[in-house]
Amino acid sequence: MRWESFSPFLPLVLKSRLTYRVAKLGLRCFGRRMSSYQLAAAKGVMSELADAYSGRKPVIFTSAFVPTEIVYGLGAVPYLPEMWSGFAAAFGVSERGIDESEAKGYSQDLCSFHRCHLGLEKLGLLPRPSAIIVSSHLCDGGRRSLYAHSVSIGCPFYVIDVPYALTDSSVRWLSLQVERICEDISRRIPGLALDGMSRAIRNSNRAREVYLDVCRLRRNQPAPWSGSEALNYVFAFLSAWGSEWLIELYENLANVLKHRIEESTYPVPQERLRILWLNLKPYYKSPLFEYLERWGVSVAFEEYSYLYWPEMDERRWAEGIAIKMLSNFGWGPIQRRLDAIWNMVNDYAVDGVVQFDQWGCRQSNGGARVLADFLRRKGIPFLELDGDGVDPRNGSLAQALTRLQAFVEVMCARQ
Fold first, then answer.
1. 307 is a domain residue
2. Inside any domain, residue 122
3. Contact partners, residue 286, CB within 8 Å, separation at least 6
4. What average pLDDT does this structure show over 81-110?
5. DSSP states of 123-166 as a string?
6. Is this structure's pTM higher than 0.85?
């Protein structure tokens, strides 16, 4: 069925409770064909979609670098438009969303993830937020595009101003902001309260503990998890901290990885090379990772799966969230990102590093030259791969495959 004939009905489908009842029944019937961690993720996402689109719970839009413990602690559903742009690409809707946003006058220079979700709003495919929370650090495009949402929808808009350095005074300043924003939201939006903050922090700490096991298992050679699938699950890493379903997801994932290692059932059994993947990936159908695996190359780990914050004190939740935000290795001097990438290179025994230069992404692409020089001095091959995560029209598959193949040959020669 063509999009034009189906599009008038899609907003109604998303908002219908019957949709989620049918989906829940489908998971019961066909869930046996899925891995346990895939089923846990599907159930978690489906439950939150049902809450968001049916209006059972308030929805809070956030940018990708705002800790979602805030949202779960308030009793709301977190919604990251960047993440849902990736889902739109997977289901073939992203091009229409991008076209709609450009028709409204948004520049093609803006990151396509943000252009896409601005267009999805015009198409009526987003849930209605009760509030929007963004941070001042890392992603300027996300902050501005979410402000555009708040203007068109007419909901409260909050900016968390993140200091540049991690110091005692910056933690105090940032934790005070977080606390006051949460208090204001709980007063203004019916159904929200601060009572769940301790539980959200406790859930986050438990998920963190289990996730560290997942990271240790992923150091195994050959890699026990497909890098392409792992990049799909970055959505959970960015959007589900504080939830109970994230704990279940990582517990089941750890068990599956242990089983694969014990049984030697690896995605790339004849692994020749291991790479570290920086930034995101194309979320529409693309054979890039199939070719890598065919060439004996595993994506051993990805930058956006790197756990960078310490355990939080549930009794001092605002301070814990402040430290988490200030600990992000993409914020502050670029040396912090270099150190984090070097840790990943060593932890996962990688032979090369690929940075996917997502169209319009300043915060990641801006440091590529410094990163290339740093890795060259360390003797690690580095490739900048131009592309677009949600718009298949903006890039050349043939060129990307040619560059990847040449990069593989460089790594082989180095071995």
1. no
2. yes
3. 392, 397
4. 90
5. TT-SPPPSEEEEESSS-HHHHHHHHHHHHHHT--EEEE---SS-
6. yes
